[in-house]
C-alpha cells in the first residue's frame, strides 16, 4: 500500500499515457482493422464484406505502381537520407569552430512546417523561373523537367524529403558520435589508423545500434510517404509518384471508399510489421 | 503536497485529452412547440469577403424574422463541400442541416444514404417546376428527390481578351474550331517567355475531368451506354490527346509546366499570361474574385465544334439526420436565400452595390423558364461587367445538349489523368498506347465495381 502511494504520481502519468495511446493510436488501429472487412458510408450500419476490400484494393489499376513507387522511393530516400545525415554528423563532430551555428542550420528545415518546405520546393522546381533551373542555366547546363517528367519526378520528391528530414537524423547521429570514448580514437591513431580506418573500425562499430535503429525508423517513415506527392505532383505524371499512402488517401477521400482504404492500410502495416520483426530479430542475433 | 499537485496535473491533462476527443452533436432547438427549431446552414461567405458575409447575415436575419421560431446558425467552412471531411462530418454529427454537394458527388452521396429524401418538401421551393428538369432528374432516384439544384452550367472556352488584342487577334471573334484554337494559342505563346497560349490540367483528377469535357465536346463518351465498358479509346478520345500533344510539343503553345489541381490553372489564368482554357462561366468569376484577374480582360465563348457539353453544378441537400421540422425549415431557407428572384443571392442590385461581379452568365439552373428569363433580366439590368463579353457563350450554351458525368467519375478521372499527363510531359508519348492502357485499367475497375 505504501509502495503504491509512493508511486501514485507515476501511475497517474502512466494512466494518462495509456489513455492517450489507447484513444489516439491503438483504438484507430483496431478500428481500421475492422473497417477493412466492412463496407461503410459512415452513416448506415456497416456491412461485412469479408475480403472484398482487399481484393478491390489489389485490383485497383494503381496498386502495383503504388507499391513499386513506394519501394523505389524508400530505397532512394534511404540512400540519401541515411548516408547524408551520417556524413554530415561526422563532419560536424570533427569541426572545432561554428559548431553550434552549423548544427542550428542543419536542424532548421525540421522546424519549418512540412507544407511550407514543400511549397518552397515547388518554386525551386518550377521549370521556368525556378531556382534549380536557374542554377543549371548559370552552369550552362540544360534545364530539367523535375516534377514534370516521369523519369525525374520521384527523385525530385526524394530530394525534398531528404532536405526536410535530415536535421533530426543528423542530431541523433551526432549525439551517438559524441558518446564514443575519445581514447578509442587515440588508440587507433597510435596504431596508425587514418580517418577512413578510424570510421570503419571505431565509429561504425560504436554507433552500430543507433545506425540499425535509425535504419528501421527511416524505412518505416519513408514507406509512409504522402505529403510530397500530395502537394507537389498529385501522384503524376503518369502515376510515377503515386505512393501507397497517397492511394489510400484517394480511396478514402476521393472515392469515399473507406473500407478499401483501410484494407490497403492493413497491407502496409503488415508489410512494415514483417520488416520490423525481421530487423529486430537480425539485430538480436547480432548482439548474441 | 508535491504529489497532490502532480496528481492534479495528471487529472487535468486527462480531462483535457478527453475533451479534445469529444465531438459536439447538433441539437435541434426543440424548446417546446413544433415551430421552434434550430438549423445550421453551410456556405456562409468567409471573413475575407466581408461584404458578401454581411449580405448573408442580413439574409439570415430577414429569414428568421419572416419565420418566427426558426433559428439559423451559419457555418463558413471553405470550400462549402470538401470530400475529405464530408463523410466524417456526417458520421460525427457535425454536418450542417443544409449543405451543398457538387454534381460530381450526387450519385455517391445519394447511393450512400447521406442525403434526406425531400420529395414531400419540394413544394417549399416556390419555383421548383422552373428548375431545369434534366438537373432535377440527376437528383431523383427511384422516384425520390434528394436535392434542390442550385447551380447549373455547361463548359465553354474562357479566354483572355487583353492577350488576344496584344497578339493581334480579334477578341470579339474568339475561336470556333480546334484549328482556330491552335492558331490563336501559337500567336499568344509567341508574345514572349512566360506566355501560355492554352492551359490544361494533368493531375489530381482534374486532368481526367478536363479530358472528359473535351471528349464530350467532340461527341465522344467515357463509357458505353450500359456503363459497363470504357468507350474513350475512340477517334474522339485520340483527337483530344493528339491536339494537346501537338500544341504542347509541335506548337510549344502550352508552356512547360504541368498543372496539377484546380488552383494551378486558375492561378495561371489570373496572372494574365494564359490565353485560353476550357471552363464554365464561374471560372471568370473565380479568376476575378479569388485570383485577382482583371474583370475586363476575360471573356467566355462556346466550346469549339461542340456536340455536347459536360454539365456541371451543385445542389443543396438536407442532412439525413434532420427532424421533419428541421428539414422543412431548411427547405424554406433554400427557397428564401437561393431561389427567390430579387432576394438573397439573386438580389443583383445589392450585389452590384457591394462590388460583386454581376453579369457573368454563371448559373443556368432555371434555364429558359419564366423564372430563368426574369433572372436574366435582373442580371443584365444590374450588370457591373461587360455582358457582351459572354454573349457568344450564352448563344452556344442554349443549343449544345448537356451530358452528365459518367458513373464512378472520380475513379475514371484518376485513370484518365495518366494519358493527360503522358501527352503533356513526354514528347514521344504514344496516344494509342496511353489510351489502350487507360482502357484496360478502366475496364478492370468497372469489372471490379460490378
TrEMBL record, chain A:
Q: Which UniProt keywords apply?
A: Cell membrane, Membrane, Sugar transport, Transmembrane, Transmembrane helix, Transport
Residue stretches making up the ABC transmembrane type-1 domain: 67-279
Q: Its GO CC terms?
A: plasma membrane
Classify the protein's membrane topology as the record does. Multi-pass membrane protein
Q: Read off the PROSITE patterns from this record.
A: ABC_TM1
Q: Which Pfam families match?
A: BPD_transp_1
- Which BP terms from GO are recorded? transmembrane transport
Q: SUPFAM superfamilies per the record? A: MetI-like
Keyword Transport annotated: yes
- The UniProt transmembrane annotation reads 7-27, 73-92, 104-125, 145-164, 209-227, 258-278
By its UniProt entry, which Gene3D superfamilies does this protein fall under?
Answer: MetI-like (1.10.3720.10)
Q: What is its main location?
A: membrane
Where is the protein localized? Cell membrane
What family name appears in the similarity comment?
Belongs to the binding-protein-dependent transport system permease family.
Name used for this protein in its record: Multiple sugar transport system permease protein
UniProtKB/TrEMBL annotation, chain B:
Q: Which domain of life is it from?
A: Bacteria
Signal peptide per UniProt: 1-19
Key word Transport present: yes
Instruction: Supply the alphabetized keyword list.
Output: Signal, Sugar transport, Transport
Q: Which Pfam families match?
A: SBP_bac_1
Q: What Gene3D superfamilies does the record tag this protein with?
A: Periplasmic binding protein-like II
Protein name according to UniProt: Multiple sugar transport system substrate-binding protein
